[in-house]
Amino acid sequence: xxxxxxxxxxxxxxxxxxxxxxxxxxxxxxxxxxxxxxxxxxxxxxxxxxxxxxxxxxxxxxxxxxxxxxxxxxxxxxxxxxxxxxxxxxxxxxxxxxxxxxxxxxxxxxxxxxxxxxxxxxxxxxxxxxxxxxxxxxxxxxxxxxxxxxxxxxxxxxxxxxxxxxxxxxxxxxxxxxxxxxxxxxxxxxxxxxxxxxxxxxxxxxxxxxxxxxxxxxxxxxxxxxxxxxxxxxxxxxxxxxxxxxxxxxxxxxxxxxxxxxxxxxxxxxxxxxxxxxx
Length: 279
What we know:
Blueprint: E1 10-14, H1 19-30, E2 34-39, H2 44-54, E3 58-63, H3 69-83, E4 88-91, H4 110-120, H5 122-138, E5 141-146, H6 159-179, E6 184-191, H7 197-202, H8 205-214, H9 223-234, E7 245-248, H10 259-264
Parallel strand pairs: 1-2, 1-4, 2-3, 4-5, 5-6, 6-7
Helix pairs in contact: 1-9, 3-5, 4-6, 5-6
């Protein structure tokens, strides 16, 4: 990163070169933010950065492993120094490739469990830890953590991931409670199955359709819609929202677990249909 004059408010987005993070980076840039993308993907980070610049936005791409505390803390400090402020931090990054190694509790290895915490919870903590003093000194700032509905409800697999995301949600409450009076808000966004390029590549079609069927909306969640919620929470429009976890899950967590079966039973009339359907 080279020193540059500030152009608009500044947002640092981890995992900003892929999936939801990419959509977030492009949306913030479209709306006048200087965007710093922190991602370990050495191919897509410069590509997405250049796409933002070509579209007229202001962006800086940094290839980094944010699990490295010294490197991440240095990036946060340099961002605030070079651009004059750090207005929004989006803790978006997660090591989703570990999900394939993450079965039920008795079967997951200790190594996978600890590596998932190191990859999916520790960076969110580090982001908060090192951005908070900067934001407090500014008198203002917003942190948005990306959680998951897997951190709010039990699943048959993804034990480590669920525990890590539950930690992200509690971290959000802790930071909000401790720092909101000092001008720094902290919220989380909790998506369900999101139609990102990687998810559509890695997820078996049958599993994707299970999510679609269980959601109340016509389709699974589009990453652009997650980005809209992240932007809102980062902006002054949400200045009285802190400590909250906002679900962007297509209504997955709102309906009864048997709602999907009822929809398929007697054209949605369920047991009150006439005539009474056979089981």
